[in-house]
Amino acid sequence: MFSFSLIIHVVAGFVALFTLWMPLFFRKGSRRHRFTGWIFTISMFIISGTSVHLALYRIWFDPTVTIEQFSFSIFLIFIAILSFSTAMYGLRVLRFKNHRGKHRHGIDWLIPAVLFMSAIIMSVYGFMVADSLLTWFPLLGVFLALSQLTYWWRQPRFRKSWVVEHLSGMLSCGIATVTAFVVFGAPQMFALDEAPIWLWFTPAIVITPLISYFSIKEKRKWRKRGKIDKTKPV
User: Which domain of life is it from (predicted)?
Assistant: First the structure.
């Protein structure tokens, strides 16, 4: 089962890496956009599930597990939670396009709450073992969890806020995908001892400005149409 999960995990990982950017090149809502988006999303769900299985298997059934392997395993679980929560958020904002504040569906509060708590626990653990990646990377999860909770709590500032939130959710999920590949996959493929620390944070540094760019672009479009509340800062 471990080997089977590992194979599925690797295959789904490459599919996700390949399809991450494809929906951006197709018109929003088009057949190709939805098709490639669903392939990416399903791949991320598979990655999340197999990540948890691989991590728990090593923690519970490997008597020779080292502290480094244990840390790797729990970080893999955190990445799985981050991937699942952001992908689900990207889907849920599409389902509730007419969200008007104080969202009442418990699952949409529970998932970011789990992400927030896991990020805090992961960061504290990383600090305790003096691991920079485990200490600082989870703060991205804290930020994403709070932004999701904020969206579900308050009324959106313009009619198509869900477009920005959907894009943010999926690209944030992409950060988890690329980071996992850079930190775990690439060193094994290219026979490296470990990825340098600056490379760990490169996906977030590159993709986060893209999220901001597309978000600002969408907001400016709706501001010109007079459909944004100009009394609130963009």
Answer: Bacteria
